[in-house]
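User: Run a structure prediction on this.
Assistant: Running it now.
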Amino acid sequence: MNVEKGQEFIEAGKLEWKEVAPGVRRKITAYDESLMTVYVEFQKGAIGYLHQHPHRQITFIELGKFEVQIGGKKQVLQKGDSYYIPPGVEHGVTTLEAGRLVDIFTPARQDFLE
């Protein structure tokens, strides 16, 4: 099952995962033009390589433990913690314990939909 733009009710268990890197997969859970949420699962040791994008991002750590790098600063965060990434700031994660992130983007990541 895929999520349609502006869909009101989304059952995450029915959504398909997409492999995006070794040990990393994601699924888009809800979106419209201005807002998007995405689950991202990481196996222990997997890397979310440094990158940047023009979107604002807030991430909630649902499970696991990560070394998070934002704009050259690093900090270890774990289940229940969150972080904010301003537009255009380089960021990435290293997975210290297998886990899941809930990413929130504004505007929506059109590149994820293609």
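The chain has a mean pLDDT of 96.
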